[in-house]
Amino acid sequence: MSTIEKIQEDLKNDAKIRECWIKNVCDHDKYAKFKTKEIYDFIIVGAGTAGCVLARELIHCIPNINVLVLEAGGPDTYSNGLINLPCAAFQVFQMSEHNWGYVTQEQKIKSSVNPTKEILKNGFPYLRGKAKGYDNWAAQGPEYKIWDWDHCLEAFKAIENNSRKNPDETFKKFHGFNGLLHVQDNQNGIYDVMSGLIEAAKNLGIPYNDDFNGERQNGVGTFQFTIKDGKRCSLANSYLKDALEKVELYSGDGFRKVVSVDVRSFAHVLNIIWDEENKEENIAIGVRYFCNGVVREAFIAPKGEVILCGGALNSPQILMLSGIGPKENLESNNIKVRKELPVGRNLLDHPGGTIVAKSTPSAVNHWSNGAEVGIIHKANVEGKIPCKDDFFDENPDIEIMVSPIQISLMDPSAKPDDNQNKLDGIVLISTLNIPSSVGYLELNSSNPFDQPKICLNYFEKSDDLYRIISSLKLCREILEQPPLSTVYNVKELGNNDDMSDEDWERSTSLHASGTVKMAPESKDGVVNHRLQVYGTKNLRVVDASIFPYIPSGNPNAPIAMVAWRASRLIAEDYMKMC
Ligand SMILES: Cc1cc2nc3c(=O)[nH]c(=O)nc-3n(C[C@H](O)[C@H](O)[C@H](O)COP(=O)(O)OP(=O)(O)OC[C@H]3O[C@@H](n4cnc5c(N)ncnc54)[C@H](O)[C@@H]3O)c2cc1C
Q1: Contact partners, residue 53, CB within 8 Å, separation at least 6
Q2: Residue 474: helix, strand or coil by DSSP?
Q3: Of the residues 543, 546, 565, which should be mutated to test ligand 1's pocket, given the most ligand atoms within 8 Å of the CB?
Q4: CA of residue 48 to ligand 1 center, whole Å
Q5: CA end-to-end distance (rounded Å), the chain
Q6: Which domains, from first to last, does the chain contain?
Q7: Among 205, 186, 204, which residue's Cα sits nearest to residue 194?
Q8: Whose CA is nearest to atom 9 of ligand 1?
Q9: Which of 263, 325, 433, 546 fits a 20 to 30 Å CA distance from 490?
Q10: Mind listing the pLDDT tens digit for each residue in 512-538?
Q11: Can you tell me the distance from the alpha carbon of 479 to that of 477, in angstroms, rounded to the nearest whole number?
Q12: What DSSP letter does each residue of 282-348 carry, written as one string?
């Protein structure tokens, strides 16, 4: 039995993982007799990063409400808990149970990822991006001040439960220790070859940084991760799990209701239900969804809201299917336009490039620890190797994630476990954290199960391409430094002096955002500073799609932050109506 199969087997019996779901189902069955129609105070669409934080925060911030969470996918237990396993992350990403299978339009600049190499990797790095990025959100108008760095930092700290040992005063200033999202340093130590890489980077003048989420973001150092007790700490098994524990019966105002968060898995939301008696006002009153082979409807109570947390590719799709979006695209798909807005227009991502190198055998053991080391720096816009000043620049735009890996050479005649076809090595994934190129997304059809048309436009602006080339040149320079070149015999695979800039390997990233932009309506905004969709009532969007500018770091923590801030705004508005 392979290690992964063994852990999968253990997880099958992991009572703790299942306990919460089972308890939730039982409690809800007990109270089912009090339910007549599907009416909830809040309907959240999507149980991803944002939806999980929002559900928990709403049920704790607002008294006596109930919340319905509709999720198209299955619960965490669906693949025997494999989703919680850091070392299985790469396999999980590719499983159809956890992947929408979306494909993008063909890119003008072709990817040249070498198909002869298979990279085993994992991750969950915890990053927030630089403070100035959020101040840019706030600079959009006086009412946007609620998104400046001080407000965002308050939310980041509220969510975080950082377990760093003996944190100093500076670390305490920037981190939270009482939230539900567990953040930790690498518990297993790092591989020697990774320490060698840090030395090599320092020798080139790159400063050491022991906290990429602290006072400054640039430099070389080790990442912190959202992992607890060896398992992924997702927002589902931290925030949603906690939310499910609150189940009460409320009697008041002459009626009784269950106070709880009700999660329905395999429930695919099709569109928003509008109040047809007040057509001009675009008042959302519920959602239509597909579950167990039938189309069902769920409605909101007075003062309630529909909140889309479907992510940057699906929230805009639901809006467009409901008549909110660009006129031309909606009309060409026979959808009646309720409100013309540039939904799907500001598709942002972190495009990247990858370099793979082999090292001395046994420098890396069988399992990778994931992206152990990070290098964050400012790139050169002419594609030249960055100079020393760039390493200290306060506005770094590149993040390099370095992982120890085992590289499988795909020889068709080789047996699956033939170690002769495996090399130890390292991979450097360089991502452009502040891209200039912008993509778009639109409907292919009015069928809710049809994929939207996704056009990423990676590297469309030449400075993006030159900046990534600049960073990859730096990666190559680091690999050529001692002790990597001497002690660990590190050699770039496919390293070839004739290689042109166009030959650099390019890969895609996973940080789609911005498609339901938070900005003034006159500046192509779709939602206002309180995340309410322009020209509608009772409808907000709370997820990666509202980013006006993409944060300069991995987005999981920034999205959780947005959901936490949104919960306070929603609670304020709800309480005003009481
Ligand atoms: C493979 C991969 C690895 C990543 N690794 C990291 C990392 O290590 N660190 C990091 O910071 N970030 C990472 N990210 C990015 C981060 O996970 C995402 O940016 C983040 O989860 C997006 O949050 P969200 O709430 O906007 O949307 P999501 O988390 O995508 O949640 C949207 C949810 O809505 C559901 N949904 C969509 N449409 C419907 C519908 N019509 N009806 C019902 N439900 C619907 C979806 O199934 C999904 O569960 C990674 C992303 C990917 C894809």
Answers
A1: 159, 235, 239, 560, 563, 564, 567
A2: helix
A3: 543
A4: 5
A5: 59
A6: 104-126+187-233+349-511 (3.30.560.10)
A7: 186
A8: 124
A9: 433
A10: 999 999 999 999 999 999 999 999 999
A11: 5
A12: -BEEEEEEEETTEEEEEEEEEEEEEEE-SHHHHHHHHHHHTTEE-HHHHHHTT---SEE--TT--BB
Distances 272 to 3, 258, 291, 557, 570 between C-alpha atoms, Å: 45, 24, 15, 28, 19
Residue having the nearest C-alpha atom to atom 2 of ligand 1? 510
Residue 454, strand partner residues: 441
CA distances from 309 to 53, 243, 539, 545 (A): 10, 16, 11, 9
Mutate which of 511, 540, 547, 564 for ligand 1? The one with the most ligand atoms within 8 Å of its CB, which is 511
Residue 177 DSSP one-character state: B
Distance of CA 570 to CAs 41, 109, 130, 306, 516, Å? 12, 42, 26, 11, 18
Question: What are the mean pLDDT values of the chain's consecutive 10-residue runs (578 residues total)?
Answer: 52 48 49 64 97 98 96 79 72 73 73 35 80 97 98 98 97 98 88 92 97 96 91 91 91 83 94 93 96 92 96 98 98 98 97 88 59 94 95 95 76 56 83 96 95 93 95 96 94 56 47 97 98 98 98 96 98 94
Contact 52, 205 (CB under 8 A): no
Q: How far is the CA of 570 from the centre of ligand 1 (A)?
A: 22
Q: What's the CA gap between 170 and 95, in Å, rounded?
A: 41
Q: How far is the CA of 236 from the centre of ligand 1 (A)?
A: 11
| Ligand 1 pocket mutation, candidates 103, 296, 314, criterion most atoms within 8 A of CB | 314
Q: Ligand 1: distance of its center to the CA of 348 in Å? A: 14
Q: Cα–Cα distances in Å, from 199 out to 112, 213, 215, 371?
A: 30, 21, 22, 17
Compute the distance between CA of residue 257 and CA of residue 63 in angstroms, rounded to an integer: 12
3-state helix, strand and coil shares in percent for the chain, rounded to the nearest 5 = 35, 25, 40
Which residues does a 6 A CB cutoff place in the pocket of ligand 1? 45-51, 70-73, 93, 123-125, 268-269, 309-312, 314, 318, 510-511, 543-544, 554-557, 559
Inter-helix orientation angle 556-576/149-159, to 10°:
100
Tell me how far the alpha carbon of residue 107 lies from the centroid of ligand 1, in angstroms: 23
* Structure-block tokens of residue 441: 């997304």
Ligand 1 atom 53, closest CA: 510
The burial class, CB within 10 Å (0-12 / 13-18 / 19+), for 401 is buried
CA 543 – ligand 1 centroid, Å? 9
String of b and e for 283-311 (b: at least 16 CB within 10 Å)?
bbbbbbbbbeeeeeebbbeebbbbbbbbb
- What's the gap in Å between 301 CA and the centre of ligand 1? 28
Closest residue by CA, ligand 1 atom 16: 556
Among protein residues, the one with the nearest Cα to ligand 1's atom 20 is 556
